[in-house]
Specification:
The chain is mainly alpha-helical. Helix content is about 35%, strand content about 5%. The chain is globular and about 30 Å long. The termini are far apart.
Length: about 80
């Protein structure tokens, strides 16, 4: 795994809401201006939490930011076939 690829396999470097800062969470992708890792947010969504419920748990993010992170992650994932 590279420094910009995360547990979800999403390369967050192309998302405008994400930054990688050396010394901040070991340089891993975080939501700009926070220490929140986008995989934690998207992982909660994947486990069934709604965007609104996630906003209750991540108070520093707006609903629009939450939806954008989820939308970006979904656009980066490879389609899974049954």
């Amino acid at each position: 795994m590279t420094g910009t690829e995360t547990d979800s396999g999403v390369d967050w470097t192309q998302c405008e809401l994400i930054e990688c800062v050396p010394g901040k969470e070991s340089g891993r992708p975080v939501v700009r201006g926070t220490r929140l890792m986008p995989d934690a947010i998207v992982g909660g969504y994947d486990l069934g939490e709604t965007s609104e419920e996630l906003c209750d748990g991540f108070l520093s993010l707006s609903l629009e930011q939450m939806k954008r992170l989820i939308e970006f992650a979904n656009s980066q994932r490879e389609p899974q076939y049954l």
